[in-house]
Automatic annotation (TrEMBL), chains A, B:
Domain of life (superkingdom): Bacteria
One Pfam family linked to the record: TetR_C_14
Keywords: DNA-binding
InterPro entries reported for this sequence: DNA-bd_HTH_TetR-type_CS, Homeodomain-like_sf, HTH-type_TetR-like_transc_reg, HTH_TetR, MftR_C
Name of this chain's protein: TetR family transcriptional regulator
Keyword DNA-binding attached: yes
Location of the DNA-binding region in this protein: 29-48
Native species: Streptomyces doebereineriae
Residue ranges of domain HTH tetR-type in the record: 6-66
Signal peptide coordinates: none
Length: 229, 229
C-alpha cells in the first residue's frame, strides 16, 4: 500500500473489481473506474501505471518486502529454508484476503493480457529467489545452476499449492498445502549450502550393494529407512 | 518452417534481423522489413501475426514437434528421461544456428516487450513438460505437485546452461552444458514414476548410521560412492 492516501487507492481497487465482475475486464475503462470511485483520472495514474496494474495492487509492495527480507538474511542460515520463509510472505498476501484473491484468479484465467502480466510477476519472484541463492552458493560447484533450479522448484511448488487453493475458491488450508509442497522441494534438494559445523561428515556411513542399482532406488530406500527411525 | 514458400519466410526473417541490428528493433517497422525483402505486407502477416513473432520464427514449430514427441512416448519409459530428451529437441533449435541465436539473445535482452514474449514461450515449454509428467504421474502420491516441480526444474536447468552458452557468444559445447545441468535435476528427483520390472527392490541394501544425519549428506555420500564404482 502507498503511504499517502491509502483509502483512495483502496477505493480505486474496489471500484475496479466491482466493474470487472459486473461488465468484464475488457469492457471496463479507466474512466469508468474513476467515475465510480469519485476521483479524477490523474488520481488513478498516480497509483497505477495502467489498468492491468490495478488487478495486482499488492505485488510491487510484496516483491519489495520479500527482496528486503532476503537481503536481511543471516549469512549462516540454511539458504533453502530462508527462501521457503520468503515464499510464506508471498502466500500471506493471497491468504490475507481470500475473496479478492479468488476473484483475481478467475479474472486472470479469462484475460490473456492479465495472464501475461501474472507470468512476469511470477518470474520476478523466481528471479529474486535465484539472485539470493546465487549469492549464497557463490563459489560452490555448480552454484548458479543449483540456485536457478532450486528457485524454479520452490516457485513451482508454491504455485501448485496456491492454484489448488484458488481453484477450490479459497476453501481449505493454503498454508498447510504450501508447507507440504515446500517439504517436497526440501527433500529433493536438502541443504544446498556448505555443511554446517555441527554436521561432521563422519556422521554418515553407507553401504550399497550391486553397482547397477539406479540412484533413485537407493534414495527411496534411505528415505523410508530414515522415516522408520 | 512453413511447408509453403519457406524461402520467402526465411527472406523475411533475414531482412528483419538485418534491420533490427542496423537500426534497432523499435525503429524498424513491418513496412521496412517487407520493402527490404521485396514482398508485400500481406506476405509478412501470412507468416507472422506480429513484428514480435518474426524474432522467434521457430518456436511454434518446435513446441508442436516437442508436444508430439512427448505424446508419442512409450508408456513404460522413464518420464524424467523422456522430458530430458524433449529438452534436447529444444536445444537443437538454438544450436542449429548459433549466430542467429546469439543475435536474438542480445536483441531480447534490450527490448522489454521481447523479454515478455520469450517468458511466455518458456512458460509454454514448461507447461508441455508438466502436462506430460502429470499424465505419467497420475494417481501417484503428489502426482501434480511432483510433475509441476520437476517440469520447472528441467526448464530452469536447460535455461541456465543455454544462457551461459548464449552469453559466451555461442562458443563452447552447449549440448554438454545442458547434459550436465539435466544430470543435476535427475540426481535430485531420480525416476519419478513407478520402478520398472527389471529393477527389483532387493537390488539395494543400505545401512545408515546415526539417525540425526541430514538426508542431503547421505545422498552426497552415495553419489560419490556410486561414482567411485
Amino acid at each position: 500500500m502507498s503511504s499517502t492516501k491509502p483509502a483512495m487507492r483502496d477505493a480505486l481497487v474496489a471500484a475496479a473489481f466491482q466493474l470487472f465482475l459486473e461488465r468484464g475486464y475488457e469492457q471496463t475503462t479507466v474512466d469508468d473506474i474513476v467515475t465510480l470511485a469519485g476521483v479524477g483520472r490523474r488520481s488513478f495514474f498516480r497509483y497505477f501505471p495502467s489498468k492491468e496494474d490495478v488487478v495486482f495492487p499488492d505485488h510491487e509492495r510484496c516483491l519489495t518486502d520479500m527482496t528486503a527480507f532476503l537481503a536481511a538474511s543471516d549469512p549462516g542460515c540454511d539458504p533453502l529454508e530462508r527462501v521457503c520463509e520468503a515464499v510464506r510472505l508471498v502466500l500471506r498476501m493471497y491468504t490475507e484476503n481470500p475473496t479478492f484473491s479468488v476473484q483475481r484468479y478467475r479474472l486472470t484465467k479469462q484475460v490473456p493480457g492479465l495472464r501475461a502480466y501474472e507470468l512476469s510477476v511470477v518470474w520476478r519472484y523466481e528471479r529474486a529467489f535465484a539472485e539470493y541463492l546465487r549469492g549464497r552458493l557463490k563459489g560452490l560447484h555448480d552454484g548458479t545452476l543449483r540456485a536457478d533450479v532450486i528457485a524454479a522448484a520452490v516457485a513451482a511448488a508454491h504455485n501448485n499449492a496456491l492454484r489448488s487453493w484458488l481453484r477450490s475458491d479459497g476453501h481449505g488450508d493454503a498454508e498447510q498445502a504450501v508447507e507440504h509442497a515446500l517439504g517436497y522441494v526440501q527433500a529433493a534438494f536438502g541443504a544446498p549450502g556448505a555443511p554446517s559445523a555441527d554436521e561432521p561428515p563422519e556422521d554418515v556411513v553407507v553401504i550399497v550393494s550391486r553397482r547397477g542399482a539406479p540412484l533413485w532406488r537407493v534414495v527411496q530406500e534411505i528415505e523410508s529407512t530414515l522415516e522408520r527411525d
